[in-house]
Amino acid sequence: MLEVVNLSKHFKNKKAVNSVNLYLEKGETVGLLGPNGAGKSTTISMISSLIRPTEGDIRLGNNSILKTPQKLRKILGVVPQEVALYMELTARENLEFFGAIHQIPKQELRKRIEEVLEIIGLKDREKELVKTFSGGMKRRLNIGAALLHNPEIVIMDEPTVGIDPQSRNYILETVKRLNKEKKMTVLYTSHYMEEVEYLCDRIYIMDSGRIIASGTKEDIKSILSQEQSILIKVEMLKGTFLEALEQIPGIKNISAKEPYVTIIVPKQVHILKDIFKAAEETETNIVSVNIETPTLEDVFLHLTGRQLRD
Questions:
Q1: What is the pTM of this model?
Q2: Percent helix, strand, coil in the chain (nearest 5)?
Q3: 2-220: what CATH class?
Q4: 225-304: which CATH topology?
Q5: Cα 157 from chain centre
């Protein structure tokens, strides 16, 4: 449905995006992952026709949107990373404004606003000023504005940042429902790996302006099919313990988030004895040790050397 071909964007001497190739099939949800500064937002801005690429092309069917961006804009909804609403207007007034921008006829717009308010769960708050809304409600209204013109493709750039778990779950269920019931094609970026695992059919991992891995969740997890993940829980995480672990031969990656340490090692490497020795030498009390199949987060760390939220 939409294809990105050898897309690059240069800013002075910096290549923000470097020869990116990706595609969206009709009716699928695709995740675009990458640490901060990976080039995701620049890529999305080019796909949305907000900025022109330095090189490459973006095709809708057989047509280049660089030459005819209006064809894409008519069927594209964008949920930006930052909330883009008028705080001094009510929820309904915001939707009326954005509907007018899309040139939706008044009678049709009234119907669409009713439908969108139901979808985002704000029907009972439609006459309240947006400045009185919680962060989650603003995010939901932000999504509603992108859905007014009934788009075939929706780009969602971290739509759940900084909101409460209940609103986050509501948004995830809404995206899932739109994709399933309306066959809406979604390009989804997030700093939460579990969201991408839950929503996405395929995933692209981006770092330093390039796509470094792509495929289904199973395809990407298979990158570490010969590895195992060891999850260690400690009473108190010490820097000396991490330093001791780094000296153990065979370890590929170590990541730490109090009170856990995650280690990636080849399956044939047996290092439990060395882990307990490191704990004893650094006076670290181990609560538990679990050996697991590597997760999507483990693969991401392996490929980029960074946590997704870094």
A1: 0.79
A2: 40, 30, 35
A3: alpha beta
A4: Alpha-Beta Plaits (3.30.70)
A5: 7
